[in-house]
Design a protein that fits this description.
The chain has two domains: 222 residues, P-loop containing nucleotide triphosphate hydrolases (Rossmann fold); 64 residues, Alpha-Beta Plaits (2-Layer Sandwich). It contains ten helices and 13 strands. It has a six-stranded mixed beta sheet with strand order 5-6-7-3-8-9, sandwiched between helices. A hairpin with a 2-residue loop joins strand 11 and strand 12.
Amino acid sequence: MPTPLPALTIDGLIKDFGPVGALDGRMVRVLEGVSLQAIHGAVTVLLGANGAGKTTTLECAQGLQRADGGVVRLLGQDPSRATPELRARVGVMLQDGGLPPSVRPLALLHHVASMYGSPLPVDALAERLGLDEFGAASIRRLSGGQKQRLALACALVGRPEVVFLDEPSAGLDPQSRTIVFDLIRELRADGLAVILTTHLLDDAQRLADYVYILEGGRTVAEGTVADLTADKDADGMRELRFETVPGLTLPPELLPHLHQREDEPGRYVLRGALTASDVAHLAQWWDARGVMPTAISMAPRSLEDVFLDISGRSIR
């Protein structure tokens, strides 16, 4: 049996923009060779700091921007020349999704459903996402989280084969986030290709089958969460927290390869490639000074650690 084609293929994507107000024709290269792939039945997550190129990449993938170089194929077609038939097979949820402010949510969802030949049952979808709780209000009166749920419903009601989700859990309370996560997992189980971006790295770690990290308009890392977070030098451990007397200063030479800080009085964090020897040295140092921690915890390397190692730990 032949291997099914990827739902989305991007190979060497290049995109240039002219600076606003520029009169000399200068162009700025925003994407410098992004490559990625998304398959059916999987959640593909795109990560990157602000300005890394995530939004432009997705706009090219959706056909909203035309590539200046490289290849983009969505369900085997060039999305910048998409036919109505192709667009009917793709769902798009934008974070600030251009929802008409004066329309009521359920009326909008019924209108969107009417554009498709075999939409999902609107009432069932609305109930699943809790839209019926605020269906009588105009969209302008909705909270950010409520607008997110409505935008998600509009992206799904046409039974797409591929769905793009931009920050799907932004502004959601914990209960709503759980509902959305369960729905995303169901979409994956039903064979959809789910492509999403998020700034919430815990969400990405929970949902992703495959992750691409962009930096400076390039794909700089990719893999499953397990592949990316593997730390061969530290048995996977990345963080040690302990609580004891405040103002305890560890000498730099004790564990020079670890970053040390006191989050608040008496609560300490060691971050880096932790080994069993590091823990033993720390315990010996405590013992020599009669220090007894009241709490100790360790955590493996996370997707956030990977992302910050690549993109830097300073605010941009």
